[in-house]
Write a structure and sequence with these properties.
Length: about 240
């Protein structure tokens, strides 16, 4: 094979990709079986199988055991555009979701009390017991990101009793704290863990974008440490200073 020759499986993949892109096969449609595709395209079944595997890796199709191969749903990607202000912190994501016609819920996964002095030091928070709050942003019935937050116990009411699926944790915090000041934010890429896979309904090892941050009250005192873990096929971040 010369450098310029295209492998048969790649030719088949491109043909199927083109059929999906043109709308011949739409989201949720079942592709013809391997035998049918092999006959139609003049190749063997192993070549078709390899092409479908490549499409599955790219997220274009989904193989369902015992049922066949289906075109994957259209990917919706939301650029999360945030300025460093309280209004943006609280409503930036939800407003953009509404503008794009999405329904959403801020779902409480778990809230627990933490009394580990080392955690306060590690997270840059004042001494004393903390709340750890885990919650997920569910968009159109699909979890796009989930967060773990740590904050002093006295700052909010018990989230297990007072959670609001619209305003979430920031809404609770604003009731008694006023202005919130972002101190720093960091971004990294990580592979999904077993916990991520369970919450976000992705495979372990799927790439995620992870955002860590520390937020202060209006006097500059650190009060909130947050880690957000988001699906990279659903969310991107744009910071506006």
């Amino acid at each position: 094979m010369t450098v310029t020759e295209i492998p048969l499986y790649e030719q088949v993949r491109r043909s199927l990709e083109g059929a999906i892109a043109s709308g011949e096969y739409g989201p949720g449609d079942k592709l013809p079986g391997e035998s049918t595709l092999a006959t139609t395209m003049g190749v063997n079944r192993l070549t078709v199988r390899r092409a479908i595997e490549e499409l599955a890796r790219a997220g274009r199709v989904q193989s369902r055991q015992g049922s066949g191969t289906y075109v994957a749903p259209t990917v919706t990607r939301l650029p999360v555009s945030q300025s460093l202000s309280t209004d943006s912190l609280v409503s930036g994501i939800t407003e953009q979701l509404a503008e794009h016609g999405h329904s959403y819920q801020d779902v409480l996964i778990k809230a627990s009390r933490v009394n580990q002095p080392q955690a306060n030091i590690e997270f840059g928070l004042p001494p004393g017991p903390l709340w750890r709050v885990d919650n997920a942003l569910v968009v159109d019935r699909e979890a796009w990101m989930w967060s773990s937050s740590w904050l002093p116990l006295e700052l909010i009411k018990d989230p297990r009793k007072h959670w609001n699926p619209v305003s979430g944790l920031y809404g609770m915090l604003l009731q008694g704290r006023g202005e919130l000041i972002p101190l720093w934010r960091s971004f990294s890429a990580e592979a999904a863990t077993a916990i991520d896979a369970s919450v976000l309904r992705v495979k372990a090892g799927t790439p995620l974008i992870v955002r860590d941050g520390l937020t202060a009250d209006e006097d500059g005192n650190p009060i909130l440490r947050v880690t957000r873990r988001a699906r990279m096929d659903r969310v991107s971040y744009v910071l506006r200073y």
